[in-house]
């Protein structure tokens, strides 16, 4: 199996991939949330294959996404509990529909890559992987599935994950980090196709936004424990700088309590709009990102606004941040060590930061994704 995407073919005039123009295609995603990086990627994939049927396990409440066909799980209470539904997901993908397709492309961070909509002799199964399911393969990242009581179920699901995905003809990984995990866990090769980021939108802010004084530190993302927003607040306190945390999640109450105890101003922005998020990026002195992510779209969005990133020297940041040029990467998660780097932000140049972000554009994704698919179906 090839591990390089080859030469870039032209994308069709109507937004479709020429290699799939005469094929019946199914696009498959896990559950579809209101917001999320994997959902954004799936939308870009769907734009490239507009004639494809689109399948998900279920849509979360509030999702207004047309043309998504839900599985039978959507008609059960399990749609409200990903943890409870997890053991049933592989079998759900195998009983999704009686339809058969020439090409199946899955967008997977759990078990979507196990979907089988035709025999491998006549159906090409391709899978774009955001990450092998963390809760069964690497629960230490965020704690889900890490209980010793779950050790046996986790091993059982690992065996199912490998056995039910043998029919996949080709994998693409969203980063070198995920490529390495695919090789380690599944013993399979993968092409690296970084996710698309709307760098044009973030870089083209109104003049008033671009003229902001950049007088605070910023944290953006879901407020869950492994994202370490508590550490972001502690870093700001150690640096003696105001901080804005933007996002939403179950840790909101805990973060608000911590914000009341620290000695620097903490502003909490709940579910900011895209426009407001762009304003926040442009007004920030730096984005703090002390978390090990598979790729991380948020650091690229920040850099598109000329905002440097201070993060840990692991995971996707090794691909998206140029240490000493577009931000700083550090091996420690000690607040004082992070805070010390805020004094060096003047060494970085906005033009260089924005140029780095431009390499992760939607157009770049479309070209690399198209090349991978064309090679894989040839």
Automatic annotation (TrEMBL):
Gene3D superfamilies tied to this protein: Glycogen Phosphorylase B
Pfam families: Glycos_transf_1
One MF annotation (Gene Ontology) recorded for this entry: glycosyltransferase activity
SUPFAM superfamilies xref list: UDP-Glycosyltransferase/glycogen phosphorylase
InterPro entries (alphabetical): Glyco_trans_1 (IPR001296), Glycosyltransferase_grp1 (IPR050194)
Domain Glycosyl transferase family: 214-346
Keywords: Transferase
Protein name: Glycosyltransferase involved in cell wall bisynthesis
């Amino acid at each position: 199996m090839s591990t390089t995407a080859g030469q870039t073919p032209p994308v069709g005039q109507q937004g479709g991939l020429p290699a799939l123009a005469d094929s019946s295609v199914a696009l498959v995603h896990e559950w579809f949330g209101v917001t999320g990086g994997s959902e954004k990627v799936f939308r870009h994939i769907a734009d490239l294959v507009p004639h494809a049927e689109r399948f998900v396990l279920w849509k979360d409440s509030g999702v207004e996404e047309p043309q998504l066909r839900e599985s039978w799980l959507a008609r059960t209470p399990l749609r409200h509990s990903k943890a409870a539904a997890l053991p049933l997901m592989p079998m759900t993908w195998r009983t999704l529909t009686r339809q058969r397709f020439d090409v199946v492309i899955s967008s997977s961070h759990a078990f979507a890559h196990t979907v089988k909509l035709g025999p491998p002799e006549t159906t090409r199964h391709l899978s774009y992987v955001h990450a092998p399911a963390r809760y069964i393969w690497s629960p230490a990242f965020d704690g889900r599935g890490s209980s010793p009581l779950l050790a046996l179920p986790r091993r059982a699901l690992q065996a199912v994950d490998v056995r039910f995905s043998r029919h996949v003809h080709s994998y693409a990984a969203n980063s070198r980090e995920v490529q390495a995990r695919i090789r380690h866990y599944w013993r399979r090769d993968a092409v690296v196709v970084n996710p698309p980021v709307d760098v044009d939108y973030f870089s083209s802010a109104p003049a008033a936004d671009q003229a902001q004084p950049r007088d605070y530190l910023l944290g953006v993302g879901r407020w869950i424990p492994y994202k370490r927003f508590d550490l972001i607040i502690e870093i700001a306190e150690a640096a003696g700088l105001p901080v804005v945390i933007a996002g939403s999640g179950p840790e909101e109450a805990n973060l608000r309590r911590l914000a009341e105890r620290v000695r620097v101003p903490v502003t909490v922005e709940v579910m900011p709009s895209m426009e407001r998020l762009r304003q926040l990026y442009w007004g920030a002195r730096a984005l703090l990102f002390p978390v090990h992510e598979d790729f991380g779209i948020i650091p690229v969005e920040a850099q598109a606004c000329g905002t440097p990133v201070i993060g840990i020297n692991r995971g996707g940041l090794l691909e998206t941040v140029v240490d000493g040029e577009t931000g700083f990467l550090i091996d420690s998660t000690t607040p004082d060590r992070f805070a010390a780097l805020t004094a060096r932000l003047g060494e970085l140049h906005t033009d260089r930061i924005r140029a780095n972000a431009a390499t992760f554009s939607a157009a770049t994704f479309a070209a690399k994704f198209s090349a991978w698919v064309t090679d894989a179906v040839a």
